[in-house]
Amino acid sequence: MKKYKHVFFDLDHTLWDFELNSTNTLKKLFTQYKLNQHFTDYDHFFNQYKPHNSKLWGDYRYNRITKRELNIQRFHLPLLDVGVDNIEFAKEFSSAYIQNCSLETQLMPHALEILTTLTHIAGLTPPKC
């Protein structure tokens, strides 16, 4: 008799490597949106982005801002740091980030092995990758 009927996973940081997928997306968009016109390089951009993003997530957790504000401001504030005040650009960049990040496919180490093992334990046919 099977003890469990369902196993649920949170994707971020469990199966799906959010940090790597996010970094890959930001690097692609940095090039696509020609942010080197405003930042010396990707690291300069990321070093401006990261503290704003962290603070904004804290504000969101405590209901001080909406998810929409978080998504826009995390890109608007780093631009403001380098003298670019373009909220429409930040909105467009945010939308591209959300859309493109979800298409990234990097998994956490051993994610496939864990899923394959659970599939075998459950007596199912493993998915083809």
Topology:
Layout: H1 18-32, H2 42-61, H3 67-81, H4 87-101, H5 111-122
Helix pairs in contact: 1-4, 2-3, 3-4
What does this protein structure show overall?
There is one protein chain. By secondary structure, the chain is an all-alpha fold. Helix content is 60%, strand content 0%. Helix 1 packs across helix 4 (87-101) and helix 3 (67-81) packs across helix 4. The protein is elongated and about 60 Å long. The relative contact order is 0.14. The mean pLDDT is 90.
SS-based class:
mainly alpha
Strand content: under 5%
Count every beta strand, where a strand is a DSSP E run of 2 or more residues: 0
Ends distance: 29 Å
How many H/I helical runs? 5
For the largest beta-sheet, the strand count, sense and barrel status come to: none
**Which H/E pattern describes the elements?**
HHHHH
Name the overall outline.
elongated
From the alpha carbons, calculate the radius of gyration and give it in angstroms.
19 Å
- Low-pLDDT segments: none
Helical proportion, percent range: 55-70%
Summarize model confidence as the mean pLDDT.
Answer: 90
Summary, kept brief:
The protein is 60% helix and 0% strand. It has 129 residues and is mainly α.
Which features characterize this protein?
mainly alpha, 129 residues, 5 helices, 60% helix
